[in-house]
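Attaching the record inline, Q. Sequence:
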Amino acid sequence: MDAGKTEGLAGELEAYANWFAAPPTPCADGHFLTLTLFAEFEDTARTAREMTAVFLRNAGADVVVDDARLVVSELVGNVVNHAVPDRHFAVAGGCRRIDVTFKLWPKWLFIGVTDEDSTPPLLPAGEAFSPGLLGELSEAVLPDNGRGVLIVQRLASAVWWSPEERGGKTVWCRFDLDGGTGR
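Structure, as predicted:
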């Protein structure tokens, strides 16, 4: 294995270890925040975008604010438009809970959006069209759904999901930062 691949794999393992780690302590180099929102409120996505910007700016991660806001908006929008709570979460007339988690370390930003639906998300395995061809295609030939996840995959360094122990799932993404100053 060449040095570049070894270095890349080591970086992925280090990032995974920090994603899996407990939230940073106040004296650590990281910042942690979880927001709880409800899908039935008309301003849920806007609130999520605004809180993303406030958190990242206050934590000094201004360079990823725009991309992170768009990613959070897409992931929260997916919950609002598609998530159906597991039977034990469903309450007649109740609201669907959405938790947005931020873990910011000097080298990475992890964003997780948790919902009450255990159905795995449809994460495209690759690009439907090459990036060069995509600009020349009309919207008529693009997929009817799944575009939001494609946007998330384009902006983030990695996208994955994990089931929650109590039910539901979290869709995660990672932004690689350059020593805490951006990509």
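The mean pLDDT is 82. Strands lie at 31-38, 97-104, 108-115, 158-163, 169-176.

More tomorrow.
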